[in-house]
Amino acid sequence: MKTKVGILGGGESGVGAALLAQREGYEIFLSDAGKLKEKFRLELDAAGLQYEEGGHEKIIDFNPAILVKSPGIPSEAEVVQKLIAGGAELISEIEFAYRHTKAYLIGITGSNGKTTTAHLLYHMLQKAGLNVGLAGNVGKSFARQLTEKEHDYYVIEISSFQLDDVAQMKLPISILLNITPDHLDRYQYSLELYADAKLKIAKNTTEEDYFIYNADDPVIAEGMERNPIQAKKIPFSQKQKLEEGAYNSSEELIINHKNQSFIMSIHDLALQGKHNLYNSMAAGIATRILDLRKEVIRESLSDFQNVEHRLETVASVHGIEFINDSKATNVNSTWYALESLSRPVVWIVGGVDKGNDYSELMPLVEEKVKAIICLGKDNKKIIDAFKEKIQIIEESTSAEDAVRKAYEIGAKGDVVLLSPACASFDLFENYEDRGHQFKKAVKAL
């Protein structure tokens, strides 16, 4: 008799899990509270898989032994609790995929920079000639990747929501970039609970494994005291010299591992700015653990092309540079964006507020921002936060209008920065849609 796998959520991770479960011979039922996107419905139909949409009645009757939950659904949801009460084991799609691969896995998490670091590390391993896949919270789900092509290595970007439902997953290399307040509404507004979720990335590690972490982050330090980690710990820092790990000194990036040093000028790095130096350090340590040739590491750190929607230069129009940082969905990401710029900024900000505290941005805003354009349905909190410091604050409800207003306010030598510090769901489908509409509007100027 086949083991029953129930899947909650019919998006990328849910459909990926369904296809993998089919390959592995399980009996499958997928359930989505809303309406499935056409492309996912067509995939499920083509595979002959059972599903329901618009509710969860049939999955209750299906009574699965394993419940694979999409990361956007909280564990407290009524249907989740009912299925657990019925005996289902609750796991994430990442965990389910982990149970069906023998590949070497490198997991990356953090509040900011994980997409950039995942793409950078993937680029470095590809350049070294390794058979590597990129999966997780970026692009295709891990489960889907396993159904399409098995790789020897996977670089996996993992969110805290995905880590919440990890049980057995054990990563040979895990990376924790930083922890700043984000998604606290899912963690009882507790930074400690959110940090504990992030640290689950190293939960099942042993002394054979490696945990790469930011030694400058006090929240990580406190979290590691609460969550002892068995793996070999390799730190990176911009504040202290390290005998084992990565640091910068005299404008050089230095990686020390197993009594060998890798040294490179920070001016030769493709990714510039303090936050990106951390990302390069973390990826660089992982490649030294994997014993990649120093020439490959140096070359790939210098020729990497950054990911779309992350400090992406779109165009320069009459001397005004337009930068798309739509992926900055929290205050800390926007802090990094503002910190990296040296010219006057017209800042486009706003969307769905996730309990943001804008006070930490105030020094940078005072120093660098000449005008603010609020792109959202409810902008009161942003306006109240900055109205005493910034004279020009406009409101907009479309990317086209926001770009036009920014262009009119801007002058030659200025930067128009879309770095919203908020989620996108009030006006856009997702941050990619927001970024694409911004870029389209810029190119129409």
Q: What does this entry look like structurally?
A:
With 445 residues, the protein is an alpha/beta fold. The protein folds into three domains: 4-92, NAD(P)-binding Rossmann-like Domain (Rossmann fold, 3-Layer(aba) Sandwich), CATH 3.40.50.720; 101-303, UDP-N-acetylmuramoyl-L-alanine:D-glutamate ligase (3-Layer(aba) Sandwich), CATH 3.40.1190.10; 312-443, Alpha-Beta Complex (Protein-Tyrosine Phosphatase, Chain A), CATH 3.90.190. It is built from 17 helices and 20 strands. The longest helix has 16 residues, at 274-289. The chain is globular, with a radius of gyration of 22 Å. The termini are far apart. The mean pLDDT is 93.
Write a short abstract of this structure.
This protein is of the alpha/beta class and 445 residues long. It is 36% helix and 23% strand. It folds into three domains: 4-92, 3-Layer(aba) Sandwich (Rossmann fold); 101-303, 3-Layer(aba) Sandwich (UDP-N-acetylmuramoyl-L-alanine:D-glutamate ligase); 312-443, Protein-Tyrosine Phosphatase, Chain A, CATH 3.90.190.
What are the salient characteristics of this protein?
UDP-N-acetylmuramoyl-L-alanine:D-glutamate ligase; 17 helices; 6-stranded mixed β-sheet; 36% helix; alpha/beta; single chain; Protein-Tyrosine Phosphatase, Chain A; 445 residues; Rossmann fold
Determine the CATH topology of the largest domain: UDP-N-acetylmuramoyl-L-alanine:D-glutamate ligase
Give the CATH H-level superfamily of the largest domain: Mur-like, catalytic domain
Secondary structure: number of strands = 20
Class by alpha and beta content: alpha/beta
Residue share in helix:
25-40%
CATH class of the largest domain: Alpha Beta
Radius of gyration: 22 Å
Segments where pLDDT lies below 50 for 5+ residues?
Answer: none
Coarse morphology: globular
The first-to-last residue Cα distance is 62 Å
- Whole-number count of domains: 3
Describe the biggest sheet? Answer: 9 strands, mixed
* Strands ordered across the widest β-sheet: 7-8-6-9-10-11-12-13-14
Q: Averaged pLDDT, please?
A: 93
Which second-level CATH architecture of the largest domain applies? 3-Layer(aba) Sandwich
Helices, by number, come to: 17
Tell me what portion of residues adopts beta-strand conformation. 15-25%
